[in-house]
Write a structure and sequence with these properties.
Keywords: Glycoprotein, Hydrolase, Signal. Belongs to the 'GDSL' lipolytic enzyme family. This protein has a five-stranded parallel β-sheet, with helices on both faces. The chain has a two-stranded antiparallel ribbon with strand order 6-7. It is about 40% helix and about 5% strand. It is built from twelve helices and seven strands. The radius of gyration is 20 Å and the shape is globular. The chain has one domain: Rossmann fold. By secondary structure, the chain is α/β, with parallel strands linked by helices.
């Protein structure tokens, strides 16, 4: 009887956590928010189609073709997922349309924002990477270059009224750092050396935030990085023969610890920046925490607990990542919604859905948004 009581009692904290982090209520309108546009910076986690429009980058970017985009859009869009990405879910939660990529010059609308994220983008500029022998793609559009795009876009789209637009906008700054670290670690840079890059990358992100604030931004979301050790690309690239190197989910603890270090330093820097700009709302986006919650409650959320660290799209090897996604030898799982990892370094539509709800539910009250729009991002719990 006692064990039954304890079992029932322990059920309630789990239920409360799932309800708070993954369930969102529906209201008719978004109230007291006044966010009328959205601007997204970042790398392939947030790219909505810029990289496939950069001359010379198409061959290197697999998101130009199926099976990318197969689940939601039923065609490739340049997103590195089978469907939507976190930026799409944020837009939906704000009752805004999906952002068009800045590089789309086909006459699409940018009246409610734009996406400047580019796959392969680093936080640091090319000269920083070259001086340290860190590889980068030849079409790299690092954060400083994305800021130049942003400023040019503001002038051409809004003219002298761009500051008014920014006062009613949300800027999502990243995540950044993930590509810098992957390129360095995969290039066999020792971890102690790569760790020294963290303060420099954080400083680069802070400088970018200050610049958008000076331009007029009043609400900024700054995501941290994912738990690297739970990405099947990391698990494939850095195998460890010691079983104690892995946690209960099969993630590499060492690389999760590195990601935690970056996120901890990022949060500290954001706290200091908030003190410097008390009238601006700066919010940390906990991509790491959302990801880990998905793993912890995988079965409750419909994910297959046996494939959490395996890629849905790939070919061969322990994690289905020996070959890339989108190649002739690609194997694609028949049920992407039950997978977290999509292609080794990016996630599935459903994983992004669940993580975005954690981020959105934390973000909106801090930005003064007390009612949630009746959006697709929030409607399936």
């Amino acid at each position: 009887m006692a064990s039954l009581f304890l079992s029932k009692f322990s059920f309630f904290p789990v239920l409360i956590i799932i309800t708070l982090f993954f369930h969102s209520s529906h209201c008719d309108v978004l109230t007291k928010c006044r966010i009328t546009s959205l601007f997204q910076f970042g790398d392939s986690i947030a790219d909505a189609g810029n990289v496939i429009r950069i001359p010379g980058a198409v061959i290197s970017a697999q998101a130009w073709g199926l099976p990318y985009g197969e689940t939601f859009f039923h065609k490739p869009t340049g997103r590195f997922s089978d469907g939507r990405i976190i930026a799409d879910y944020i837009a939906s939660a704000l009752n805004l349309p999906f952002l068009n990529p800045y590089m789309d010059k086909s006459g699409v609308s940018f009246s409610q924002g734009a996406n400047f994220a580019v796959a392969g983008a680093t936080a640091m500029n090319n000269s920083f990477l070259a001086e340290r022998g860190i590889g980068f793609v030849p079409f790299n559009v690092p954060l400083p270059s994305q800021l130049e795009w942003f400023k040019s876009h503001l002038q051409s789209t809004y003219g002298s009224n761009y500051a008014r637009t920014l006062r009613n906008s949300l800027v999502v700054m990243g995540e950044f750092g993930g590509v810098d670290y992957w390129n360095a670690l995969a290039g066999n840079k020792p971890e102690p050396e790569v760790r020294t890059y963290v303060p420099l990358i954080i400083d680069g992100i802070m400088s970018a935030i200050k610049e958008v604030i000076q331009l007029g931004s009043t609400r900024i979301l700054v995501p941290g990085v994912f738990p690297f050790g739970c990405l099947s690309g990391y698990l494939t690239r850095f195998p460890d023969t010691n079983p104690n190197a892995y946690d209960q989910f099969g993630c590499l603890k060492f690389y999760n610890s590195f990601a935690t270090y970056h996120n901890t330093e990022l949060k500290k820097a954001l706290e200091n920046l908030q003190c410097e700009f008390p009238r601006v709302k700066i919010v940390y986006g906990d991509y790491y925490g959302g990801f880990r919650l998905v793993f912890r409650y995988a079965s409750w959320l419909g994910f297959n607990p046996n494939t959490l660290v395996s890629a849905c799209c790939g070919s061969g090897g322990r994690y289905n990542t020996a070959g890339g996604c989108g190649t002739p030898s690609t194997n694609v799982c028949p049920n992407p919604s039950q997978y977290v990892n999509w292609d080794g370094l990016h996630l599935t539509d459903e994983a992004y859905h669940r993580i975005s709800n954690v981020v959105i539910n934390n973000m909106l009250p801090k930005f003064g948004c007390y009612g949630l729009g009746n959006s697709s991002a929030m409607s399936s719990y």
